[in-house]
Amino acid sequence: MKTKVKKNVSETSLIVKAIQKNDFLSRLDDEQITMMVERLVAIDFKPGNDVIKEGTEGDSMYIVAAGELLVSQADCNLRTLTCGDVFGELAILYNCKRTATVKAKTVVRLWFMERQMYRTIMTNKSKKKLYTLNLPTCTLLALNDSQLSKIIDSMEEVKYQNNDVIVREGAEGNTFYIILKGEVYCVTVVCSTISSTVLEEPDAPEKTSPSSSLRLKDLIPVLYQEGRYQGEPVTLGVGGFGRVELVTTLHHGKYFAMKRVSKKHIVAKRQEEHVLFEKRILKAIKSDFIVRLHSAFKDTRYIYMIMEFCVGGEIWTKLKEVGRFDEPIAVFCTACVVEAYAYLHKKGIMYRDLKPENLMLDAKGYVKLVDFGFAKELVHGDKTYSFCGTPEYMAPEIIQNQGHDFAADFWSLGILVYELLVGSPPFSSSEPAKIYPKILDGVLKFPPYMGEGAKSLISKLCRPRPGQRLGNTKNGIKDVRHHRWFSSMNWHKLRVGQVEAPTIRLIRKVSLATAGNFKASMDTDSCEPDAAEELLPSYP
């Protein structure tokens, strides 16, 4: 970690007040704020200089120490920033494009921090918590790293004033404490004689302390056709890294979804590892609740993944068509996701990108997970610190860079249940910067038509502390399956495909060439593949 930057009392006070009045940063604890104050660096700008420019990527946040700055968007002036204002804070979370230009009106001094430093501070705090719990005591020595991690996620930091009673003799005990700072007295009444023991911070010993083979050339695009009109290839979806087209084989007429990703785009976004990892995961997966990868190829311009074609289309499209799902449909869709999660988590794979857009319906109406661009392998008990996912579905610990594990998937499951039943996620805004504070506040507002079982499930899945979330406690995903909201679900029959899917009525009985279950999108980027090299063996 970088050397601390000295600041006088007034500078420190200004920075602390600026952090405390910011919607996002105000949720940092005292120690994190202190570490930020110590490592913010001063930078000066002359009048007319751009601090940040609209449309460019940034990795720093700023606090105004002196002077005035003008905020503009598309050459329209929005507001003026003055001493104590904070701006650019989204950039310390993830690599995003600036939504406005900030220009110095006067001589300006700013305090700034880069994303890597902020993440280092958050990561160090999380690791310090683990170290604190890893004490040489009889009780904790028997715990493995996974169990210690669960304890950390379940703990809350509380503060007591001098002479406050923490534990009263004779009262029922269901809580244990670890002293992080300060000292306490243990007072025991023995035959009307009071004896006391001091418990201190760690210095004195013996005292409680903190601690069939497919070839690319055999595949042809399915052209959009309505009546006598025949147009461009049918596009099933367009994402951040490529396009998914409907293709068929020359000989036996089977349909596939072909995901085509530009190599140039992959390299420009430094996503080589992500794309290869997605291919490797999908190659290994054999689950009826996850889309199947048949083959993968590459040529000089593109990488192609030949996937199972889900004729029913996206859950997101169906949801927008009807507004919100009836409870039986929501239960079925969620149950399919639970089975996909059970398979992935057992193999040590976090999904991390659950949302209706990534759920597809097959011909029977069963739901399948697609798009593994954010998936990650993780040893149970470990944590990862990458910032990824869809803002509305992110767990609090991801936003706060505290380190996350499989519990983050259960948070997003709760958000999915809410969106399926309501039609929109519980924490939403047109601006990501406004979504994150809502998630951290964690206030769930349920509409009057939502059943008590659904409310209970969502509340338990969306608990702020990962260790307390349904699915991440002692019995794991079994607790999710046994929740009363799923009382009508026969899990064994679901796994073997014997449950009649209520979603089947959402699937239109139309010609594939009209893309009736998909949002049609014309492709102006023609694809004439070069001689392609197969990336992996085809599945039979």
UniProtKB/TrEMBL annotation:
Q: Where is the Cyclic nucleotide-binding domain?
A: 24-122, 139-184
Does Transferase count among this protein's keywords?
A: yes
- CDD domains on file: CAP_ED, STKc_cGK
Please give the Pfam families that the UniProt record associates with this protein.
cNMP_binding (PF00027), Pkinase (PF00069)
What UniProt keywords apply to this chain's record, in alphabetical order? ATP-binding, cGMP, cGMP-binding, Kinase, Nucleotide-binding, Serine/threonine-protein kinase, Transferase
Q: Which GO terms describe its molecular function?
A: ATP binding; cGMP binding; cGMP-dependent protein kinase activity
The UniProt annotation places ATP binding at 269
The record's PANTHER family line, in alphabetical order, gives: CYCLIC NUCLEOTIDE-DEPENDENT PROTEIN KINASE, PROTEIN KINASE CGMP-DEPENDENT 3
Kindly give the Gene3D superfamilies that the UniProt entry links to this protein: Jelly Rolls (2.60.120.10), Phosphorylase Kinase, domain 1 (3.30.200.20), Transferase(Phosphotransferase) domain 1 (1.10.510.10)
Segments forming domain Protein kinase? 230-486
What organism is the protein native to? Hucho hucho (huchen)
Q: Does the keyword Nucleotide-binding apply?
A: yes
Q: Which SMART domains match?
A: cNMP, S_TKc
- What InterPro entries does the record tag this protein with? cNMP-bd_CS, cNMP-bd_dom, cNMP-bd_dom_sf, Kinase-like_dom_sf, Prot_kinase_dom, Protein_kinase_ATP_BS, RmlC-like_jellyroll, Ser/Thr_kinase_AS
Q: Which residues form a coiled coil?
A: none
Q: What is this protein called?
A: Protein kinase cGMP-dependent 3
